[in-house]
UniProtKB/TrEMBL annotation:
Provenance organism: [Roseibacterium] beibuensis
One function term, GO molecular function aspect: hydrolase activity
Keyword Metal-binding among record annotations: yes
Annotated transmembrane regions: none
Protein name as annotated: Fumarylacetoacetate hydrolase family protein
Lineage, highest ranks first: Bacteria, Pseudomonadati, Pseudomonadota, Alphaproteobacteria, Rhodobacterales
Entry keyword set: Hydrolase, Metal-binding
Pfam families: FAA_hydrolase
Length: 227
């Protein structure tokens, strides 16, 4: 490693259910990947080309605590399936895409909805509403060797015991192999890349003190307290 003029930042990693952690290189997030969520956000649910935005690797936070962020009064929860890649490349064929997956996890795409809404109106990027500190609470990643490639299963999120979001992985408009293949046409995917695969309907605001309980059947569960 070359000499650096400041101390080199550590590679961010997230826990797995086995030995060792998963190092994160990039985080790609697909937007409006469940038809019902597209409708609730005011968009046509028809299958259009997918679009992605990015979070930062250190936004992924396994601590179980979500600090309510500054400069917002409307922060929403979004439960998502996390896809962790062990390899990558460009122009990955659809029938080879799943070969690049190391494992899956449960995560939350926390969103400063008011700031995202302002950005949308002005035609600006979403990062101010999406890529803030600790904006992606995450559970441990489970390897494919344990759970295979889940393509169906209940997706649910409760807040203080009340069901807010519910759907099924089979309701994703763009499936995991399609997301990987599509992304690889525009980016060179690599080991350590993570894909957050969209959320079902029912997104809503949280307040300090709320407890969010997220679960994806066959993948895992995650409990996060808003502080």
């Amino acid at each position: 490693m070359p000499n650096t003029v400041i101390p080199a930042p550590e590679v961010h990693s997230i826990p797995t259910t086995g030995e060792g952690a998963f190092p994160v290189r990039r985080v790609y997030c697909i937007g409006r990947n469940y038809a019902a969520h597209a409708v609730e956000m005011g968009h046509d649910p028809d299958r259009e080309p997918p679009f992605f935005f990015q979070k930062n690797p250190d936004n992924l936070d396994p601590s179980g605590a979500f600090p309510y962020p500054p400069n917002s009064s409307d922060v929403h929860h979004e439960i998502e399936l996390l896809v962790a890649l062990k390899s990558g490349g460009t122009n990955i064929p659809l029938d080879k895409a799943l070969e690049h997956v190391w494992g899956y996890g449960v995560c939350l795409d926390m969103t400063r909805r008011d700031l995202q809404g302002q950005a949308k109106k002005m035609g600006r990027p979403w990062e101010i509403g999406k890529a803030f500190e600790r904006s992606a609470p995450v559970g441990p990643v489970r390897p494919v060797s344990e759970i295979g490639h889940p393509d169906h299963g209940r997706v649910a999120l409760k807040v203080n015991g009340d069901l807010r979001q519910e759907g099924d992985l089979n309701q994703m408009i763009w499936k995991v192999p399609e997301m990987i293949s599509y992304l690889s046409e525009y980016f060179e995917l690599a080991p350590g890349d993570v894909i957050m695969s969209g959320t079902p309907a029912g997104v809503a605001a949280v307040e300090r003190g709320d407890v969010m309980e997220a679960e994806i059947e066959g993948v895992g569960a995650l409990s996060v307290t808003v502080i």
